[in-house]
Amino acid sequence: xxxxxxxxxxxxxxxxxxxxxxxxxxxxxxxxxxxxxxxxxxxxxxxxxxxxxxxxxxxxxxxxxxxxxxxxxxxxxxxxxxxxxxxxxxxxxxxxxxxxxxxxxxxxxxxxxxxxxxxxxxxxxxxxxxxxxxxxxxxxxxxxxxxxxxxxxxxxxxxxxxxxxxxxxxxxxxxxxxxxxxxxxxxxxxxxxxxxxxxxxxxxxxxxxxxxxxxxxxxxxxxxxxxxxxxxxxxxxxxxxxxxxxxxxxxxxxxxxxxxxxxxxxxxxxxxxxxxxxxxxxxxxxxxxxxxxxx
Length: 295
Prior knowledge:
single chain; alpha/beta; Rossmann fold; 8-stranded mixed β-sheet; globular
């Protein structure tokens, strides 16, 4: 396996990433991989990239603008539209890369980026396959999982942040996770589960502009699912505290060529241990089959 840094520009900002290339493979298929809500590419995603690469697939893993070592302000802005523009730019960049087969290109996303992978596949031609692990599929459905007692304060912060953005001021921020108070991911398993993804000793962007607490409601990948022509693997968590299984099942039913797998785990259990092994095995088998590496 060879690993090299790559970069491409989106609206003048430099987006940083890593290209994983399998040794001994001439122009292998390639998977574009993006991280989940408020995260960075180093948050457990290298394990997935390495697993796919060892199975003969190249992987381009990148940070959205405003995250990790990618440029872009405001820092830590979780914005579906901006993330989708970054995904589309990554597709264009990868299709022109020498050394990989851009005609055999797959999208990979987990949690929030699982929704991005689905929407990008619905929008862009030339996508050969999609993997969406515990994907965000319906912001409205997920909103009903948010604690009712936090809604007034969360709404107030989001409105203040939207006002600040309109006036060109610094964002009003909210923690991604926390043990109490207003935060983005507020289910009981989120604090410990999210922190397990972070490399030991890492310095990371712990807060994000609060507007996402409102704008998330309008981000509903389920609404474009019927437009996806590529084969899709959706891996859902039966005990998901953030994304209702009924919403994920509804999305899968709208995709013409969907392999839908439900594992008896929570939202954060697929990133390490035996359930990581189970998930990556499903992904490798699916991608090898649909990207011309089966056999």
